[in-house]
Amino acid sequence: FGHDSFLLKNAEMNRIVDGFLKAGDG
């Protein structure tokens, strides 16, 4: 169970969510 893997996945999710919010905003 890699902690780094979790952080990487979390950062990836944040990026996807951010892009989703920006797309919905525009």
TrEMBL record:
GO MF annotations, alphabetized: homoserine O-acetyltransferase activity
The keyword Transferase is annotated on this UniProt entry: yes
Top enzyme class: transferase
Keyword terms, alphabetized: Acyltransferase, Transferase
EC number: 2.3.1.31
Protein name, UniProt field: Homoserine O-acetyltransferase
Annotated organism of origin: hydrothermal vent metagenome
